[in-house]
Amino acid sequence: MTAVDLSGVPDDDVPNLAIVIVTYNSAEVLEGCLRSLKSQGVRLASIVVADNASQDHSVAIAQAAADDLPIQTVQLGRNAGYAAAINAASATLDMRKVSAVFLMNPDCRLRPDSLRLLARVLRQPGRGIAVPRLVNPDGTLQPSLRRRPTVGRALAESLLGGRLAGRIGVLGEMITDPARYERPGPAVWATGAAMLIAAEAARDIGPWDESFLLYSEETEYALRAADRGWTLWYEPAAVVEHIGGDSGINPRLAALLVVNRVTLFRRRHRGPTAWAYYLAVLSGELIRALTGRRTARAIAVALLRPSRRIKALAD
């Protein structure tokens, strides 16, 4: 895969972007991720690989790729989480010299021109975040768009499951209707595996909330962006392949994911509404725990016993 020749294109017509990639034992996927950045129709001012104390060769792979790409590495020295790594990487960037910064997981591969298409979306006033169409390695759709969290949606997902609830009108938080993913448009929030943030919006929204460690940090960021008047826009012409993680099978990560969802909702809502959301989520996990699901049991324990919740990520 070779880089696109931009030598004859006027500077004003070519977006100047920064890239932030957060790694943690990502050696198996990082090389492919970096290689996919070479055919994007944009100028890459800087690529920052923020490493959360990987014990494999992630940092070495990033440093070796610096011969072809403008890569620098930031080593946090511990597994500080996704938001902390983003903040550490962003601190090395001069946001006045780029039009936007692209955040991506190392298990992502960009299809050609995806960054150019996302950058074009952000030329419209008021659009602060642009997200692509995510697909699985086999090319099938990976549902990435979400509706606003509500008590009713939490209850529906507890009773029916997230994917089934998402198929029934607007009942679920997850948007699963394939037709929605065929057309561009605004969304409340989206999976944080790949998102382009306008530099002006990033300065206005501020740093990512590091208290979440993993999961819900992108939800909090998107909701905070909307609070400040910025729109998150979905662009299906930009396509990113996302391998995905193991939160669905790892009980501790699954518990962290659900606890963070509840924590975020309770930060943004008070009184009976916050309690109703908590009870809706808890009831669903208790029902699943009774059927023998290990992940549901871990989630229920974490919701009921704060002392059992993850406070730090293991290195």
Automatic annotation (TrEMBL):
SUPFAM superfamilies: Nucleotide-diphospho-sugar transferases. The keyword Transferase applies. Residues 19-140 form the Glycosyltransferase 2-like domain. It comes from the Bacteria. The keyword Transferase applies. GO terms for molecular function: transferase activity. Keywords: Transferase. This is Glycosyltransferase, GT2 family. It comes from Micromonospora rhizosphaerae.
